[in-house]
Amino acid sequence: MFTDIVGYTAMAQADESLALKLLRKHRDFVRPVLARHEGREVKTMGDAFLVEFPSALAATKCAIDLEKSLQRFNEGKKDKVRIRVGIHVGDVVHEGGDVYGDAVNIASRIESLAENGGVCVSQQAYDQVRNKVPFRFSKLGFHELKNVSFPIDVYRLELLERRTEEAAAPDASRRLAVLPFANMSSDPGDEYFADGLTEEMISTLSKVPQIEVISRTSVMQYKRTPKPIKEVFRELNSGTVLEGSVRKAGGRVRVTVQMIDAQHDKHLWAESYDRDMKHIFEIQSEIANLVVDALKIKVLSSATDRMGQKPTNNPGAYTLYLQGRYHWNMRGLEDVRKAADYFKRALRKDPEFALGYVGLGDCHQVLATRFEIDVGANWKKAKADVAKALQLDPGLAEAHATRAVALFADHELRRAEEEFRIATELKPSYASAHQWYAQLLTAQLRWDEALSHIEKASELDPFSQIVSMVHTFLYEAKRDYGSGLRLAERAVELNPNAGACRFELAWLYGKMRMFDEMEREAEIGLGLVKNAVPFADRGRDGMVAYLRSDRQKVRRVLPELKAHIGETFTAVRFIADLHFYLGEIDEGFEWLEKSFSKKEFDLFYIRSDEFLDSVRADKRYLRLMGKLGLD
């Protein structure tokens, strides 16, 4: 934390004795406040303090304490002490009782952006303290700071607009987290049913436009590491929490559920249901109505109808569907194949089960995009499945979103956008629809709209690694590598064992000329994927050679990349990029056409591809843009 007195230099020039008097008052006042928050005074520099804290939250709470205490101290006084505060999180080097490093410089530069009596924090600090202090932040955007090699995203703490718990309650209370239902059955194999019921409750409540429901990815982390309700509120800014348990035995099920005011840790109501399995949908509908009543929401009849709508009249089909979703959410290749089998079995029991067709379509989509298996055939099947789902239920948001992705892959961008709009209107809390929509907008360089949707996805699913990665790609496309780097680091924190995230982080470290960190992350990424991707080291070598501007090594690696397409953890488009980097324009376009024929999603982002900057007037580039629907 860096602080200084507002206007001190001018004050010292006008009245040196008054300035010294205020400086002494300032130091006497600040030091006890620092001590209250475990702040270690590193040094003073004239009117400035440099202070180190054990956490970003401690520093922010100290800044709030300082500013609020100074407001009271200055009341009625002619000679007032006003300070500015800047906070940043970063590594420093301790030496001789002092600290050094970029973090110190960044904190001091951020402090200069604060207004009279204000507090500014960096993106890194904001990520750790948002929703944990009773004030809101305003985004000031990116700033080029002196002696800092990349732009810094800065936020201002709005101290004049105190957001008490009481004032925040109406908004936060309608932000709902459905925590994972506990499986109380004697058979551990029924875990899928508890997880499936959690997902279906999220889906049911998401149909109410006035409620913002946290996505499955973010709430399922609390299954592995349960936390106190207050902590859930702080992490998700979810003012209301629903939690419960499920006991399944034969053809009967017992569901116990309670609703909690998370801000004040108070129980609002609790209910138990002991019914036949065939009544599981009525239970979901009753719970949803109790939530709506407790939040005092007036719901349109159309939303009420959709909450009470049964996805199927066949309990057996529904059970198979839940098993399918359980495996699909794992996202591994074998899990996706198992999921597809369960969805097919569900549809054999009920051929009119619309959600079953969406589940099957999602499996084919993942096989085509994530694993590049029989791409054309799987896309064809996905489109047929979604068409059947929409024929059975035209208002199914998930089906519209999946259809939008298929249209995107077919280069029908206008139709895809219309489907995304329908999906997000039907189900505003569907994070995946906002994430996919952001990808479409990023491909079209519609930055503000893309940022709006990916930030919405982040709000709905704050612990989703996929959302964090798409957020990263947006900033990478904008060539704002500093912001992309922070988000890539966040993605790795969410899942340190994801090889793709490690390679993306290595790429961004390379773009920031942080080569030691680049080499470290590339090596970790290689270790995570080499068993599944036998020639991933070639892809790693090609990336590192380019980032280090080693043209000779790029030339040596290229034949290996071509010889092992699909086994190097790099896209065909990257082979094209390396040819453009070497000035081999014809070969570059040849490989772009191969990327197009493989229907690589990466190809949609050629408008922001740095390798193509020199060929944007080339007829071959313009023709490819037209084929992609990006002209």
Sheet with most strands: strand arrangement: 2-3-1-4-7-9-8
Class computed from helices, strands and strand pairing? alpha/beta
Task: Characterize the main sheet.
Answer: 7 strands, mixed
CATH class of the domain at 2-163: Alpha Beta
CATH architecture of the domain at 2-163: 2-Layer Sandwich
Low-confidence runs of at least 5 consecutive residues:
161-170, 299-305
Tell me the layout of helices and strands.
Layout: E1 2-5, H1 8-14, H2 16-36, E2 40-45, E3 48-52, H3 56-74, E4 83-87, E5 93-95, E6 98-100, H4 102-111, E7 119-122, H5 123-129, E8 137-143, E9 152-157, H6 165-173, E10 175-178, E11 182-183, H7 191-205, E12 212-213, H8 216-219, H9 221-224, H10 229-236, E13 240-249, E14 252-261, E15 266-276, H11 280-294, H12 301-307, H13 315-328, H14 333-349, H15 354-369, H16 375-392, H17 397-409, H18 413-426, H19 431-443, H20 447-460, H21 465-477, H22 481-494, H23 499-511, H24 515-529, H25 536-547, H26 551-563, H27 572-581, H28 585-597, H29 619-628
Parallel strand pairs: 4-7, 10-12, 10-13, 11-13
Antiparallel strand pairs: 1-3, 1-4, 2-3, 5-6, 7-9, 8-9, 13-14, 14-15
Helix pairs in contact: 1-2, 2-3, 7-11, 7-13, 13-14, 13-15, 14-15, 15-16, 15-17, 16-17, 17-18, 17-19, 18-19, 19-20, 19-21, 20-21, 21-22, 22-23, 23-24, 23-25, 24-25, 25-26, 26-27, 27-28
